[in-house]
Amino acid sequence: MASLSRPRRAFWGDTRFLVGIVLVVLSITAVWLIVTGSDQARPVLRADRTIVQGERLSAGDFQVIEVGLGLSGDDYLGPEDLQPGQVAARTLTKGEIVPTAALADADRDRSTTIVVESSTGIPGEVQAGSVVDVWFAPPLDDGRTYDTPRILVTDVVVRDVIESNGMLADTAARLELVIDRSDTADVLAAITGGAALSVLPVGAGS
User: Which of 38, 56, 180, 198 is the S-S candidate for 135 at Cβ 3.0 to 4.6 Å?
Assistant: First the structure.
């Protein structure tokens, strides 16, 4: 008795074949979008110098360059996006392409600046833009010695180092610091109270 053979299903009717075709099309489309986006250069702002947190911004702080940023282009600042009264929300290093998240309105900024004198000098790596801790040692009743040093404020940004040429590590140095407004009273109290202040890079005192 002859057996009847089942008709073979056409390969294009195979579900796996159809799924494979869809995946290939999606892959090609994704690659095309990435390549197309990367080829579309747009003008963006690049920091012409180191700009510290809280510093007011102006067009003279930046250079306009053409960069192909692809699909992330909208995350960076264009020349038309810089508005009067804006400040740096964080430190921008020289040569950095400026992200939009790095700007803030001056009236919403909670930082201020204050000049302190580090009685122990400062390490050579501390410069504008460095993040430091401020330690203080309150004076004792004898007026000649100081209590054990302790943390006053942490993670503050150096806006400027005010020093004379040839300053040695064991001489005092003055720095302009960017601090949160909520810390201002404590820092001023330490200064007017005659405490010995020391500025150290973050982690140096731990």
Answer: 198
Q: What is the mean pLDDT of residues 156-162?
A: 91
Q: Distance between CA atoms of 126 and 111, rounded to whole angstroms?
A: 20
- Sketch out the chain's domains with CATH numbers: 14-108 (3.90.1210.10), 110-201 (no CATH)
Quote the tokens at residue 110. 């909670």
Is residue 134 within 8 Å of residue 187, measured between CB atoms? Answer: yes
Six token digits for residue 132? 């430091």
Q: Regarding predicted confidence, which is higher, 178 or 37?
A: 178
The SS3 call for residue 101 is helix
Bridge partners (DSSP) of residue 201 are 132
Please tell me whether the overall predicted TM-score, pTM, comes out greater than 0.85 for this model. Answer: no
* C-alpha to C-alpha distance for 3 and 173, rounded to whole angstroms: 101
State the CB neighbour count (10 A cutoff) for residue 91.
Answer: 22
DSSP E strands in 77-195: the ranges are 86-88, 103-105, 111-118, 131-137, 150-162, 173-180
Residue whose C-alpha is closest to residue 120's, from 140, 142, 146, 141: 146
* Cα–Cα distance measured from residue 187 to residue 150, given in angstroms and rounded to the nearest whole number: 13
The CA distance from 136 to 198, in Å, is 6
Token reading at 75 = 């995350």
Distance CA 78, CA 25 (A): 34
Radius of gyration, alpha carbons of the chain: 29
